[in-house]
């Protein structure tokens, strides 16, 4: 059973020819570490390895900011224009919608939420590379602490 505080950002009424999905990933890192990577609307290629580059078209990273991302070759698109819809640092929610590009995505919206769980973080999206990056950041920080002692 998905808690209400998680479901509120991931429930959507679907129309004809529409679909949705949710993927849950447990990451062995604190929410603050994972969020420091995820919240960067200007740098999604840091953890989304299918993206080649990103630049902000309008705005400075607040809600309403537009970005253009370029995807790696071999995918059925070259670029996508996306608008930041939600950036909630308190609840660890980020959402964007696709508003243009040379692809067939229409009415596409992505929502990522982070939730603390014991000693790690639950991420509602498909981000295996995010897990690797955040876990490496924690390991590097721990190694740095061990070097100081």
Automatic annotation (TrEMBL):
Subcellular location: Cytoplasm; Nucleus
InterPro entries cross-referenced by the UniProt entry: Plant_def-hormone_signal, Polyketide_cyclase/dehydratase, START-like_dom_sf
Species, as recorded: Linum tenue
A Gene Ontology biological process term: abscisic acid-activated signaling pathway
UniProt record similarity statement: Belongs to the PYR/PYL/RCAR abscisic acid intracellular receptor family.
Identification of the protein by name: Uncharacterized protein
GO molecular function: abscisic acid binding; protein phosphatase inhibitor activity; signaling receptor activity
Coiled coil: none
Keywords, sorted A to Z: Abscisic acid signaling pathway, Cytoplasm, Nucleus, Protein phosphatase inhibitor, Receptor
Keyword Cytoplasm: yes
